[in-house]
Amino acid sequence: MSLRTDAAPSADRELRVRMGVTLLFLVVLPFAFVYTFLLLANTVGIALLEWATERPYHGEFYVDPVVLTVVVLGGFVVQYRYGPTAVLGSVDARRVTAEEYPDLHATVTRLAAQAGVPEPEVAVLEADLPNAFAVGTADDGTVVVSTGLLDSLEDRELEAVLAHELAHLGNRDASLMTVAWLLPTITYYLAVVAFWVLYGFYRLLGAGAGGGSRDGRGLAVAAVVITVTTVLTMAVSAMFWVASVLLYRLLSRHREYAADRGAAAITGDPAALASALERIDGRMPEIPDEDLRRYDGGVEALYLAPLEARAFGSKELISTDIFPDSHPPTDERIDRLRELERGGV
User: Fold this and answer.
1) 1 occurs within a structural domain
2) How far apart are CA 84 and CA 235, in angstroms?
3) Which of 157, 165, 256, 341 is the catalytic position?
4) What's this model's pTM, rounded to 2 decimal places?
5) Is residue 2 assigned to a domain?
6) Number of domains in the chain
7) Residues 6+ apart with CB under 8 A from 155
8) Domain for residue 129, yes or no?
């Protein structure tokens, strides 16, 4: 069997272009996020300050661009360096040695040599969920497989899946996906903190912690300032969370096609990956809803196969209805792989 690879270079160029655009937005969005808050501080914030103090305020809030640049770039560096470890910890994946999983390590070593990438570390996720993902860089990556995947696939299917994850490392989109999750994480937790501050304040008021009527204006001022501040914080955080997650998921969709082609090129067996995707898709209905929700979130877009490819009744994954799917349709991926098998791509 021979594979036509003339379409692959242009497709890889398209992935690089998309990654470049994503990187540009990744850098721009944090600055836009901070300066949106700065704008609100110098308009709504100053108006609140003047109302609360009953005197004019002649200054303005200011953020040094150099300091902001250092903080933003520093955040990206920290995420780039420690993000993969955080991802592994979030799903309780454990790096394993060649002594523990000799066949798995041997297969990864062989495929990495065929792919021309440094041998990554190997981690295992103790879960019935049949899936895999890769984190880190091409030079310092980790391929993660679940025990459910190891139990479900035949040898050639497992090789194809591992080749797919190695292709992610070789394309360098795995590290970009890790860095891309920095802003969604920050905006999410900022909105959560704002909500609990607002909730806690009104719980205190309801418990009679306002001190009676001795300082009615002070209590009113505190209520207005806290309410306006937290609501605006939640609104801005939600807006940028949506924008950053949308960007993240759109990149995730395209990178899967590129990694599918890469796996076919590495193994020379696109049918094996198509078979693996079919087998995984068939296993998904057997996985309890609680397990799928546990692995939803940022890691969900990293998986080989989507977690949202099944019905959850009235308790769907939170991302299903709000955003486009994190992966291309599995049937379409399988069709493309079948075309590769026939030499049609």
Assistant:
1) no
2) 29
3) 165
4) 0.81
5) no
6) 1
7) none
8) yes
For residue 21, the enclosing domain spans 8-341
Give a yes or no: residue 3 inside a domain.
Answer: no
- Which pLDDT value is given to residue 314? 37
| Most confident option among 246-250, 292-296, 307-311 | 246-250
pLDDT average, residue stretch 159-177: 92
Which tokens sit at 55? 């005197």
- 175: tokens are 């590290």
Is residue 126 part of the annotated active site? The answer reads no
